[in-house]
Amino acid sequence: xxxxxxxxxxxxxxxxxxxxxxxxxxxxxxxxxxxxxxxxxxxxxxxxxxxxxxxxxxxxxxxxxxxxxxxxxxxxxxxxxxxxxxxxxxxxxxxxxxx
Amino acid sequence: xxxxxxxxxxxxxxxxxxxxxxxxxxxxxxxxxxxxxxxxxxxxxxxxxxxxxxxxxxxxxxxxxxxxxxxxxxxxxxxxxxxxxxxxxxxxxxxxxxxxxxxxxxxxxxxxxxxxxxxxxxxxxxxxxxxxxxxxxxxxxxxxxxxxxxxxxxxxxxxxxxxxxxxxxxxxxxxxxxxxxxxxxxxxxxxxxxxxxxxxxxxxxxxxxxxxxxxxxxxxxxxxxxxxxxxxxxxxxxxxxxxxxxxxxxxxxxxxxxxxxxxxxxxxxxxxxxxxxxxxxxxxxxxxxxxxxxxxxxxxxxxxxxxxxxxxxxxxxxxxxxxxxxxxxxxxxxxxxxxxxxxxxxxxxxxxxxxxxxxxxxxxxxxxxxxxxxxxxxxxxxxxxxxxxxxxxxxxxxxxxxxxxxxxxxxxxxxxxxxxxxxxxxxxxxxxxxxxxxxxxxxxxxxxxxxxxxxxxxxxxxxxxxxxxxxxxxxxxxxxxxxxxxxxxxxxxxxxxxxxxxxxxxxxxxxxxxxxxxxxxxxxxxxxxxxxxxxxxxxxxxxxxxxxxxxxxxxxxxxxxxxxxxxxxxxxxxxxxxxxxxxxxxxxxxxxxxxxxxxxxxxxxxxxxxxxxxxxxxxxxxxxxxxxxxxxxxxxxxxxxxxxxxxxxxxxxxxxxxxxxxxxxxxxxxxxxxxxxxxxxxxxxxxxxxxxxxxxxxxxxxxxxxxxxxxxxxxxxxxxxxxxxxxxxxxxxxxxxxxxxxxxxxxxxxxxxxxxxxxxxxxxxxxxxxxxxxxxxxxxxxxxxxxxxxxxxxxxxxxxxxxxxxxxxxxxxxxxxxxxxxxxxxxxxxxxxxxxxxxxxxxxxxxxxxxxxxxxxxxxxxxxxxxxxxxxxxxxxxxxxxxxxxxxxxxxxxxxxxxxxxxxxxxxxxxxxxxxxxxxxxxxxxxxxxxxxxxxxxxxxxxxxxxxxxxxxxxxxxxxxxxxxxxxxxxxxxxxxxxxxxxxxxxxxxxxxxxxxxxxxxxxxx
Amino acid sequence: xxxxxxxxxxxxxxxxxxxxxxxxxxxxxxxxxxxxxxxxxxxxxxxxxxxxxxxxxxxxxxxxxxxxxxxxxxxxxxxxxxxxxxxxxxxxxxxxxxxxxxxxxxxxxxxxxxxxxxxxxxxxxxxxxxxxxxxxxxxxxxxxxxxxxxxxxxxxxxxxxxxxxxxxxxxxxxxxxxxxxxxxxxxxxxxxxxxxxxxxxxxxxxxxxxxxxxxxxxxxx
Lengths: 99, 1006, 221
Description:
The complex is a heterotrimer of chains A (99), B (1006) and C (221).
Chain A: E1 3-6, E2 11-14, E3 19-23, H1 37-45, E4 53-59, E5 67-73, E6 79-84
Chain B: E1 14-23, E2 26-32, H1 36-42, E3 49-50, E4 57-58, E5 71-74, E6 82-86, E7 96-100, H2 111-114, H3 118-122, H4 127-133, H5 136-149, E8 164-176, H6 180-191, E9 196-199, E10 215-216, E11 219-220, H7 221-233, E12 238-241, E13 244-250, E14 254-260, E15 276-288, E16 292-294, E17 307-309, H8 310-320, E18 327-332, H9 338-346, E19 350-356, H10 364-372, E20 376-378, E21 380-387, E22 391-398, E23 411-414, E24 417-421, E25 424-426, H11 429-432, E26 439-441, E27 446-448, E28 456-458, H12 468-485, E29 498-499, E30 525-527, E31 532-533, H13 534-542, H14 548-555, H15 568-578, H16 583-586, H17 600-604, H18 621-626, E32 630-634, E33 637-642, H19 650-663, E34 666-669, E35 674-679, H20 683-690, E36 703-709, E37 715-725, E38 728-733, H21 738-752, E39 759-762, E40 767-773, H22 777-782, E41 800-805, E42 808-813, E43 822-828, H23 832-843, E44 849-850, H24 853-862, E45 912-919, E46 931-933, E47 944-954, E48 959-967, E49 976-980, E50 986-992
Parallel strand pairs in B: 1-7, 8-9, 8-15, 9-12, 15-28, 17-24, 18-19, 18-24, 19-20, 34-44
Antiparallel strand pairs in B: 1-2, 3-4, 5-6, 5-7, 10-11, 10-29, 13-14, 14-15, 16-25, 21-22, 22-23, 26-27, 30-31, 32-33, 34-40, 35-38, 35-39, 36-37, 37-38, 40-43, 41-42, 42-43, 45-48, 45-50, 46-47, 47-48, 49-50
Helix pairs in contact in B: 6-7, 6-12, 8-9, 9-10, 13-15, 19-24
Chain C: H1 28-33, E1 37-38, E2 45-50, E3 53-59, H2 65-75, E4 85-87, E5 92-97, E6 100-106, H3 110-120, E7 126-129, E8 134-140, H4 144-151, E9 166-171, E10 174-182, E11 185-191, H5 192-206, E12 211-213, H6 216-220
Parallel strand pairs in C: 2-12
Antiparallel strand pairs in C: 1-12, 2-8, 3-6, 3-7, 4-5, 5-6, 8-11, 9-10, 10-11
């Protein structure tokens, strides 16, 4: 049971409020129609599975419904922090978004 | 019954409160303050069960969570049965009923014992491993018999009558264990003002202090514990949880505490009290003060009843005032073992000998033993216990200095109890739950917790600190540190003065040598619960298992409900020795949750029966109940399935509902469909990107069917979306897909297209939706509205209108999932029942018939309309479904799914495609899921073409109809395929169009 | 009504029915079916439905000063920030998300307020009437926080959840927007379809503390 920081609510919340949505920064190709099958297949199915720090997309499903990214260590399950969409992983934090 | 082993005075029991209880059908008495095991000992009951593999008699060994033998079945009634209770941890109450769980069919005369160790030969080490590797059928056979014989207890056959619940806790500091270190830590942390939870698995907090001979601040250790607890209990920021086992330590300092609130009071919980509670704790900082478990020494026949842990002997005498026998031989590798002999002697019974494996021990304890005149045999060990169902003698022999050889002949000492102490193993269990690896420490002669990533520290015996002063000091230090970590200012605690004996060095010894080598000696047990012997472990290493994890799995060491608390370290030591390695080199296995078994009740809490899962209700739910609907679960919704009339079969109900709708008018509660309000200037653009079809020209007042695909091009949801305003749409989704679709839309909006100005909100619950369908639906609606022009040319199919229905503002959508003239009336949910009942009031003369989901399914299947999730399974794109018309490929934006469905594999002509199916025999309804083949005579495995996705009997058509997928099915119209069924029948069916009724769609356009 | 429609690009609708129409709140039947008082001794928990309130979801950009000004001019309430609420006699405005608020008002006033909002707001915003889609369960009494502790993982201590705070979180196996109205008075906004479940859960969780169905005042009179 993780404790995850929601950068929109500015609080640590229990894992059951969130849904994991796969790897972060997975951009939809800008011109899908001109992708090869292989390129599209990579976008659809091929994912990194790093040992160590990993940026993930989560949604505060039972809270504010906002998507954000989490940097989590896949080995230790420790979470370095969260950052909003549009921010970079080095901005991952576990506090500081209080209004 | 006389309590023959009860001491006249002392102990923490209340002799004025006698309690009666039963074990194995016999009545006994004990006292308040007893555990079941102390009460059994008081009554001289020494055989508690039979062992799993060899059927050997077993008695009580320990006094706490580490007990491997005294596992009982509790419960006076069928509904209150609790299996796998450790008698050592079960407080006695009046009327307690217990049964042995091992030793089926009886304790005294059992199959295993009688048949000469039947399973002993059948179950060599590696049994589990080998049976798992070999055919499964064999395992099924073994499992049935092993379970019965292995004493695993049984689950009740009646529902539990007690209540259980969960409580969420947030605390600054959680201290696990209320022994000297834990009390000291909790006190220091609490005095700083931090919120503190102190949990201990025992009813009486204090741990080793309760049976200690030492003094703190000039008073007995137990008095210091009582004073400290009193101070803690008086503080608002402290929660004391006795009878509460911290059973799991999970990520990010989330711990679960299994609190037994009334298990000590009676067979059933008192009214309005929860029997057990699972505390779900988030702690800012955790102090593990879980103590240590004493290690027994491994010697021949060490499983005979009467062989006990030295500390357990002391605990029984000092805490419960019971003495497990008359004459004691105590063997020890360390000073702690001496206390058992002193306590035994003080209780007035005979200490035959104190056997110390050390050649020349020194210290206060040794001096005292000499002063007391106890026969002290140094450099000796008990090599073997003698006796049949109880120890009758100990064979004692001199040992070499390293303890690895005997140096002289054995002497036989008559006794009925052998206490042994091989030192103390820190209770590292919780530290392992989040991945921590214990490390061997030669000074401690045990594994201590390794580095942790959690916000956690350790104090006391778990850290290898075994002296009382050290425990108190370390507790205070870690309590202060915990408070500081949680943001409080902790003052340095003034440490109490402690009077305790000086101790000498302990000896690292685990398995006592015998005259014969391990494989030939009488059995030397390591793991009592699983009957794992030293010889078995040696055999495993000889067979090539070098990793300690493999040795564990091969021998089943530590696999019992006690998780090897008693035997694991001895097992590791024996494995290491036989591989000529150090224990540090071989390492240890790690422990997983739960620390001790947890009841299902505590896990489930109140999430059971009616509260097991949310039931979602529509605004008309009460009406459906009153009108006899049977319900179907769709997602979490309760939807009317059909409305049987008295005497009707299900099919008769469905036929009636189907015919009434096609021939007159029927009504469906469609409130459960997902509804998403979409507003914003880019709403139309957004919808165009997430649906496969065109939305650019949909005018205000119009509705359109839309298909939603994943990026892989596969259909995952569908529904009708209506244009409410130029910047305002109402999207409907399937009932089960509503939450997922909204999250999907938000995902794309927030991550891919944040520049689009659009807001989406669920309005599923706000609108009560009722669909009236059938040729008479317009006539019926006309009776309830006077501000909506229902003329067929002004309010056309796929239009929506706003107006008033039965006095309630409504949006009416002329859309159809049945192919009939049909209106979906949406009103705010508060008025749903009012409008629904008004429809029935006016509908009586139209024979308005309520229909449920099953009729809805049949009616839509007659029209070949798909249900996403039933006719699709995540591997079908719109073309597979014959929905080419719903894909607009030339939209400017590459909508979601467009690229996916253009992949090479998606263009194959032999993909499974949705077709209609008509059985040759119109009375046969194909089972959904049946697989089609071209050649029913082909030997198995046959070439399968696809499966039936929907299948019904259609009263309107007077025959069965089905839809299904067939490889290349769109090109095979008119072909015959065969469905071989599991009952041996082969059903012949023709591939047809999915439009079974009204192929031109005239009925909905009237 | 068309002259009131300030924004023809969206469909707005006065959803109040004619006078003789019976409105049934989300818990209309559950409340009737539940035994009025149970548990030992004096009630420490009071549970009732604050039924049939007007409820508008307001979406917009908090950083847009026009939006914030529009809200306060239309409602005479400040736009509350993160996890906060603004309250007046007739209304409460609850923060739900950085771009979402929930306005609680009189049901009869909902349309007039929606119209006022639409008059006052410009640019990218949305107002959605969800009055029928959710309801407010009120939980009060000395053991109310204890009942919440049993029901949600979110901490309800005075420091973590002071009066006026709002948190949308898990309530057992459903979701609720929880607002602390007073030290022992809580408001739980739950979706209509889950209301029966939430009610059943809360009555069950309250039982050991003694439960009174209804407001505390009623108990005393």
